[in-house]
Design a protein that fits this description.
This protein is an alpha/beta fold. The chain folds into two domains: 176 residues, Rossmann fold, CATH 3.40.50.720; 80 residues, Orthogonal Bundle (N-(1-d-carboxylethyl)-l-norvaline Dehydrogenase, domain 2). The chain contains twelve helices and eight strands. Strands 3-2-1-4-5-6-7-8 form an eight-stranded mixed sheet. Helix 7 links the parallel strand 7 and strand 8. Helix 1 crosses helix 2 and helix 2 packs antiparallel against helix 3. The longest helix is centred in the first third of the chain and has 22 residues.
Length: 281
């Protein structure tokens, strides 16, 4: 089972990266979002990715060709009509995902495989809404896909081996290193390591132990890591950090409130917006 025609639902920061990564590796891809306003923002993000891919891979012509091949639509039926694989990257909210999959189950071809990019919800939480639990699993991307090119593949007890292997093959054909997650785990492998690290940094900040710049500097000097935790928060996006933190313990909820009032409400959403904890060109 070779997956050739790809649809990505959701054109946020990571959704547009998934779209571009797929197109850059030569597969036809359609991006879907709910409104023309959302698609206009997606077009801007996709245009910016041309330079990122051109610089990283050293092939401006290929990056531009990939951009020109991408199709965007706000018509869900049109987006999935011929899809072999539908990758869902809608907001981390079970109700939104359930609504999306109920519509998708009716509109997508019977043979199509569905993959969620959810970073916090287990695929088993979602499978009942898909109408095809055997053809449903998780494919989790890391931010800045072109360089942080892991593709964590995690099925449910109902996922067929054929669907699982087809998604592993797709991941490898689109420039990812397929990470086989052998059983369901909240946070997969990457976020099971990353989230406690970022949470520890946020707790240091809200408890007044040190400011963000000092925490980052300490981590980078002490470990040789290229990024500190608050630089990573900016890369991931502060909306994502907010949604995860507000569901955490009392200290995490204080961090969520800080993010909302001091950053998100001011339009400081992270690196993609030009400013978060730091300013970016």
């Amino acid at each position: 089972m070779e997956l050739q025609r790809i649809t990505v639902l959701g054109t946020g920061v990571l959704g547009t990266q998934i779209i571009f990564q797929t197109a850059y590796h030569g597969l036809p891809v359609i991006g879907y979002d709910i409104s023309e306003q959302a698609l206009a923002a997606a077009n801007q993000r996709l245009d910016a990715l041309v330079a990122q891919y051109a610089q990283y891979f050293g092939n401006p012509q290929k990056a531009q060709s990939a951009r020109e091949s991408i199709e965007l639509t706000s018509d869900l039926a049109d987006a999935v009509r011929e899809a072999d694989l539908v990758i869902e990257a809608v907001p981390e909210n079970l109700e939104i995902k359930a609504q999306t999959y109920r519509k998708l189950a009716v509109l997508a071809p019977e043979q199509a495989i569905f993959a969620t990019n959810s970073s916090t919800l287990l695929p088993s939480n979602i499978a009942e809404f898909t109408g095809r639990p055997g053809q449903f699993l998780a494919l989790h991307y890391a931010n800045r896909i072109w360089s942080n090119n892991t593709g964590e593949v995690m099925g449910t007890p109902a996922t067929t081996p054929e669907a699982y292997e087809a998604v592993v093959d797709f991941a490898e054909r689109t420039g990812l290193v397929a990470i086989r997650v052998l059983k369901e785990q909240p946070g997969y492998v990457l976020n099971s390591l990353l989230v406690p690290f970022l949470q520890s940094a946020s707790h240091l900040l809200v408890n007044g132990v040190a400011d963000a710049q000092t925490i980052d500097k300490t981590w980078k000097l002490g470990t040789g890591a290229p990024h500190g935790p608050f630089e990573i928060y900016d890369i991931v996006g502060l909306n994502t950090a907010y949604n995860i933190s507000r569901a955490g313990d009392a200290t995490s909820q204080k961090f969520a409130e800080l993010l909302k009032t001091q950053y998100i409400d001011q339009g400081k959403l992270g690196a993609a917006a030009g400013e978060g904890f730091y300013k970016y060109n």
